[in-house]
Amino acid sequence: MNDWNAAIIEEFRANDGRVGGMFEGQPLLLLHHTGARTGTRRVTPLTYQDLADGYAVFASKAGADTNPDWYHNVVANPGTDVEVGTGTVRVRARVTAGAERDRIWTRQKRDYPQFAEYEAKTARVIPVIVLERV
């Protein structure tokens, strides 16, 4: 997975935030996060949904029964940065709930049906995280 992410990150940075393959045509950002236990700085490419005050990202892990590591990291260390296009934006992560989560999640499934497939693969509620600009 690290090699796969590294290749996407390299392509993202070389092409002003655009990549091909499975992410072609989808909005993609690079989430910087700090390990909850290790303190190690990491970068993870994620599909996002543009919001008025930031971005929504989805801890889908392709429908796995556990949340991705980056999710635990931003819960523990919510202040971070994202790369979007050619810029870097300071953000604060927060996990959504209730009607806010449902509204964002429903739109994501409508716009990108693979997210509905991820939801069908797991019994967990896939977290929706808002990255608010600070």
Beginning-to-end CA distance, first to last residue:
30 Å
Principal-axis shape: globular
Major β-sheet, in short? 6 strands, antiparallel, barrel
Number of helices: 4
Question: How is this structure best described in words?
Answer:
This protein is of the alpha+beta class. It is built from 4 helices and 6 strands. It has a 6-stranded antiparallel barrel. It starts with a helix and ends with a strand. The model has no long low-confidence stretch (mean pLDDT 96).
What topology emerges from the helices and strands here?
Elements: H1 2-14, E1 28-34, E2 41-51, E3 54-58, H2 69-76, E4 79-84, E5 87-95, H3 98-111, H4 114-121, E6 128-133
Antiparallel strand pairs: 1-2, 1-4, 2-3, 3-6, 4-5, 5-6
